[in-house]
Amino acid sequence: MNELLNKLEFIILDDDKGSNFLTEESILDELPNASIRTFYKAIQCLEYLTLNNGTRILLIDINMPSITGWEFIKELQERNLQERIIILTASSNEDDKIRATKEGVHFMNKPINVEELKMIISRD
Fold first, then answer.
1. Mean of the pLDDT values across residues 96-119?
2. Kind of pairing between the strands at 84-89 and 35-39
3. What is the average pLDDT value for the chain, to the nearest integer?
4. Which 8-state DSSP code applies to residue 79?
5. Nearest to residue 72, comparing CAs of 97, 46, 96?
6. Domains of the chain by range and CATH?
7. Per-residue pLDDT for 97 more than 90?
8. Omega of the bond prior to 32 within 30 degrees of 0, cis?
């Protein structure tokens, strides 16, 4: 399982630098060989995803200033980018959890729980 996880690229999209640091460190504590790329702006992340193929997991925050996580997911769909997505958010709104299910994405609360992350990835 860890061998598979170490081959994945983790893409973090969140405007909160402190949260991104904690997420990166948590993943690297459990998966020291993991590849992690962090974006603070959705447009830069979209450009990267459009130009680079790979096996990756997107960890996306919902509440960002220029575009919401939901709008970002819609943009991915419009560009026909098939990505494995996990909403990683501080939101405790039940509507967000329900929407994640309807959108076909996973939902996790911050701070990231790497064991839960591993279970989600192993089920996909």
1. 95
2. unpaired
3. 92
4. T
5. 46
6. 2-123 (3.40.50.2300)
7. yes
8. no
